[in-house]
């Protein structure tokens, strides 16, 4: 069979279709033939290599050199040649041109020009195929294709030899010149990137209409013009570093035709027109522009396809295939209302809401972060954010693995099995089993300069060169912007003498012991530096590190240090896949993994080693080989008997090595370690230690523990003491409890008005809510952190949009209830924000943090870490369905609004493009994506439960209108409860479950109390109020009564009239009261909450608390809280007597007098009683409840108001004694909280604070 | 049980008498306890059935008497909110302020049998508290002086300027310096609540006295 025949066959069946058995046989035959021919060919040629080992090409269509020649080349150089395309086996498609239909069929194939092969052979090594790629689709998230890394000479050479334009951006000199002159004419600064794309930066935007747009190069080049000006809202909104991005196509909402007046530039067509023209140009433009068109369509409807891939590919200004083709479609595309800026990272315009915001955005108003969507957008782009969220994701991944194993009752550890087999082989030969010493062994697996090694995985040409991962790919120079004063900032940071850049070294912890930046430029260099790129280096290769480049260094500076430094752009997709691959590999050995970050993990291999009987070194080797094989990146492994030692060993192991720190070597090893290598020793602590004359752990060992504790506090001191001896008892935790959830944004914060700041805060709160929900947590303490420009610092920082030199302020507030509601957080934060009284114009960064977290019981899926779901939680969640009744007092406001907010948030979540890989919403875990939907459908009482137990008031007490306004199911439950009560008042108690709190599980069933799940929205304005049991009239505080609004007074009066008329009901009520007394503790949570809720609505009715409802404490004896208790005060007696004689005119009579209600704590008045109460409280409960603490605070406040400082003093001192003696630290925290609050009140009243000794 | 109102003139005077008497004892005692004057000028006396110290320096006694004499009309009309004994260092910066915060219930109910003994008990407690207050206070720097301030309610100052109870012994508006104390710590000493009078005594102490 002649070869021509094969060719013919191949061209008929173009390789994309399916094949039968005949084809399979044929292909294998061909392969055989190829293999057979190869040695012969090599012999004939005399030269051979294996540069293409692992490469299998398929030639499609006409190529130069021809397919046969290519086949020969592949034979000679160790490659494979496929006559038929097989997706799984063929690695590259060689083509110079592809028909339209085939382009459409391309999915992720690497379509490369034949020059790749010839050039590689010429170079004697396999070059990166990226520059030779034919089509944009292959680029996926990677921009590397456009930049001419490594071989500028190659890429800058115009390629006239190819009739079809290559995808390598060849930038002709003429274009450069013409653009330069053009911009000179318009008095704008020009920044020409040598990497193929050129962006023009306008400092002034005066002539924007004329120049803003894409101007097409003469033949096949595209330059992105980037107008930038302070008045341009679009730019300032971005998150990306505009000076370091390779391309910044900027899309404007305006559709006015812009005329670009350079040589062959064409006028911009309005969008509609360009759409119309899409079809014809499709056919005329040929294959490439065709692909552009499709993408431009997808942009026009971003809501439909918000995927990253599309956006990115499309926004890439691409050379049109035929020189004659106009750039119209592209321009139309760019004129779309989507505005996207690219920064080497990626951008999405995810939601329609975002679009709306943009279109309503007028120039002149600097819209900064003030816009909705901006924040979530920011966070879906911030690279640091990604990396930090990954850690959580991987933690979840690990715990998901574990739970899956638990569910399956065992898992197959493929890696482990392999190792076992290997071990079996080995030991059969040597018969020497590893010593079976059961000693704990921790493995610390860390990828070697993760970002870099991932970035150059497919770029063999960069291996062994200094490489940095950064967003800047230019020469590292940028024009200086007016208003910026980089020198000053450099001096400032220099004066801080600290490694400012270190803050960005999130990922490569092996960098920690790097020497401080002694190479901080002198003043002479400073001026030069001003023009250097401020893009930070996220990671750099070891070769670059040798040249002095450090992670976090600015790229411009690094370029000076190491002129041949190559830059690689971010590729988050790849990072993620590699990291996931690494974790999968690790998980194939054991599930005792703690995810530290995306590229490092801890493994507790103690059991594994015992089970396998291998040495740690063997295990580490196996793991490393596995990782190398699967990810193509090298990892280092440190081993030690604890986490600390394992991490330290990793430092020694790096790069690409492993080190087992044996316990007998620990002492010698650790003595020479610098203190900064200890975890927790940052710059401030190391400088403090330096001042103590400590630089190594050995020095640190000389210090006594008491000295350390004196210097650093008890805990840190002890930790240091232990660490410097290599002692570390932290366990490897696959589930880590989160301490806080926060969102912070300090890039591009420029507000002009308070409203903007407020709406920004609201949006940020929503982001926090999203995160809280994602983690299934609720927090109680909200901290607002604000960065404010330091007085005297330049208005514009050196880094565009950066925060510059700032002062940091923080305020926090403790909420009554843990929350994850963004609205609630926003309300509190805005209050805090106003309390700070800042100039919004000076704000440079805003952060929100939520602490004191507790799991929300309502997480439907219940997966992920830090969600300790216990039986208790289950019980609580089920309670509403079990309890026969529901409490009416829940105002409908409160019930509906959370549900609406919930709906909003989940919509929000869904709006985020599911394809954006690292964003939290697109969790790879199954089930999570359902979470949002599930939340949407879950009734909110499940979602936001408070577990309040409130008595259902008797029917007479319930306002019918309120009842009617309640949701049907709740109303039914209320009515049901009445029926229950009538029928079997005693049995109803058995149905209800006593409310359980973490602190005090009250014994015994409750009578007539029911659990209500109140939505956690205390901030909501409630119209209908909670129907409290009416206190005895004698208990009504007259001046409170007088202070009430007229309507309320009338209502109360009529209520009391009714009460007297319906004597029977009073009876019922009083019996209810008596019932209650038998189980006083059941009332507590409800009381606290109710009162506070009530208080928020009305100015002062909290004073109603004098009613028997006021019972607070568990262990409160009935006698003490009995409403009939007469206080030893004549004042009191009089009070009681007075109103009982009158009815409607009571308010008038009473309001004349002004007797102060005596402050009581849970009904106790006398100090001795209060002392007893407090003692019981503190001793009987291990953890104070918030309600109780607040009650105490309220009492103390009343004491201050009552001018009874002495008692206050005594109470405080007594509490101090009690609570600080208590073994639980929560009690001292509680005391501190109480004291702080009291001090504030005292300070307000007396101008000075209490002296507490 | 008799119910008297503020309009009942006698009653206001009774309260003022009791209070001023007490204040006199208290001021003497404070001066003694706080070492404002050498202990040699003080004599032990008995008041409210407890031993108290009283100065025997005639000028000082006169000053205190006169002052209280001027305070009395204010108390009668329930116009005095606070009577403050300020102890100042050499530079006339206050180091301690003994604040008697007075409030009289608008509705007075007097049970005549128990009134006196009850009030006396309360006042005695307060005196005792003063006599041991040095335990909770830091020592004063040497060379201290004292002054008495009255915080009045509402527009009582107007009247005070017009009416000089004692000739050539007018009230003057206190210096801000005397009134204000920075970084003060508050130490409550005693609170008494009786039918005719509610009074609490606390000390504001400067954190750094020297």
TrEMBL record, chain A:
<dbReference type="GO" id="GO:0070987">
    <property type="term" value="P:error-free translesion synthesis"/>
</dbReference>
<keyword id="KW-0237">DNA synthesis</keyword>
<protein>
    <recommendedName>
        <fullName>DNA repair protein REV1</fullName>
        <ecNumber>2.7.7.-</ecNumber>
    </recommendedName>
</protein>
<dbReference type="InterPro" id="IPR053848">
    <property type="entry name" value="IMS_HHH_1"/>
</dbReference>
<keyword id="KW-0234">DNA repair</keyword>
<feature type="region of interest" description="Disordered">
    <location>
        <begin position="975"/>
        <end position="1012"/>
    </location>
</feature>
<keyword id="KW-0238">DNA-binding</keyword>
<keyword id="KW-0808">Transferase</keyword>
<dbReference type="InterPro" id="IPR043502">
    <property type="entry name" value="DNA/RNA_pol_sf"/>
</dbReference>
<feature type="domain" description="UmuC">
    <location>
        <begin position="442"/>
        <end position="682"/>
    </location>
</feature>
<feature type="compositionally biased region" description="Basic and acidic residues">
    <location>
        <begin position="1"/>
        <end position="12"/>
    </location>
</feature>
<keyword id="KW-0227">DNA damage</keyword>
<dbReference type="GO" id="GO:0046872">
    <property type="term" value="F:metal ion binding"/>
</dbReference>
<dbReference type="InterPro" id="IPR025527">
    <property type="entry name" value="HUWE1/Rev1_UBM"/>
</dbReference>
<feature type="compositionally biased region" description="Basic and acidic residues">
    <location>
        <begin position="975"/>
        <end position="984"/>
    </location>
</feature>
<feature type="compositionally biased region" description="Polar residues">
    <location>
        <begin position="263"/>
        <end position="272"/>
    </location>
</feature>
<dbReference type="InterPro" id="IPR012112">
    <property type="entry name" value="REV1"/>
</dbReference>
<feature type="compositionally biased region" description="Polar residues">
    <location>
        <begin position="319"/>
        <end position="328"/>
    </location>
</feature>
<keyword id="KW-0548">Nucleotidyltransferase</keyword>
<dbReference type="GO" id="GO:0005634">
    <property type="term" value="C:nucleus"/>
</dbReference>
<feature type="compositionally biased region" description="Basic residues">
    <location>
        <begin position="1089"/>
        <end position="1098"/>
    </location>
</feature>
<feature type="compositionally biased region" description="Low complexity">
    <location>
        <begin position="918"/>
        <end position="928"/>
    </location>
</feature>
TrEMBL record, chain B:
<dbReference type="InterPro" id="IPR036570">
    <property type="entry name" value="HORMA_dom_sf"/>
</dbReference>
<dbReference type="GO" id="GO:0005634">
    <property type="term" value="C:nucleus"/>
</dbReference>
<dbReference type="Pfam" id="PF02301">
    <property type="entry name" value="HORMA"/>
</dbReference>
<protein>
    <recommendedName>
        <fullName>Mitotic spindle assembly checkpoint protein MAD2B</fullName>
    </recommendedName>
</protein>
<dbReference type="GO" id="GO:0016035">
    <property type="term" value="C:zeta DNA polymerase complex"/>
</dbReference>
<dbReference type="InterPro" id="IPR045091">
    <property type="entry name" value="Mad2-like"/>
</dbReference>
<keyword id="KW-0539">Nucleus</keyword>
<dbReference type="GO" id="GO:0006974">
    <property type="term" value="P:DNA damage response"/>
</dbReference>
<keyword id="KW-0227">DNA damage</keyword>
<dbReference type="InterPro" id="IPR003511">
    <property type="entry name" value="HORMA_dom"/>
</dbReference>
<feature type="domain" description="HORMA">
    <location>
        <begin position="13"/>
        <end position="203"/>
    </location>
</feature>
